[in-house]
Amino acid sequence: GDQAVQFGFQLLKELREAGLAVEMDFSGKKLNKVMSYADYLRARFVTVIGDNELNTGIITLKEMATGTKKELSINQLKSIEA
User: Fold this and answer.
1) DSSP reduced 3-state for 70
2) Which residue, 19, 23, 65, 76, could crosslink 82 as a Cys pair with Cβ 3.0–4.6 Å?
3) Which residues neighbour 53 within 8 Å (Cβ) at sequence distance 6 or greater?
4) Nearest-angstrom CA–CA distance, 32 and 26
5) What is the three-class DSSP state of 61?
6) At CA 15, angle to CA 49 and CA 25, rounded to 5?
7) Where does the pLDDT of residue 82 fall: very low under 50, low under 70, confident under 90, or very high at 90 and above?
């Protein structure tokens, strides 16, 4: 949703300012295509933030190499170090 996109822009800015290399997908592609692209980019972690995640304040961070998933609060995500 629009609120999630706006939040994504702000989070992208904050994470980059914290020294993290961060990408945000705007293509509108299906999730499996976006995940394949993240794998192509050799992303270490992926998260999907939508309206549900904004409402709960909880996101799932997926480690691409292992497939391990971990739930974090959005504030915890912001505190991850580079």
Assistant:
1) strand
2) 19
3) 4, 59, 74
4) 14
5) strand
6) 45
7) low
Each residue's pLDDT tens digit, 15-67: 898 888 999 988 888 989 999 999 999 999 999 888 889 899 899 999 999 99
Could you tell me which residues come within 8 angstroms of residue 25 by beta carbon, excluding any fewer than 6 positions away? 34, 37
As a whole number, mean pLDDT of residues 70-80 equals 83
Amino acid letter, 65: A
CA gap 36, 18 in Å, rounded: 26
Q: Which pTM was predicted? A: 0.79
- Please give the distance of CA 66 from its chain centroid, rounded to a whole number: 17
Alpha helices (H) along the chain: 2-17, 31-40, 51-56, 74-78
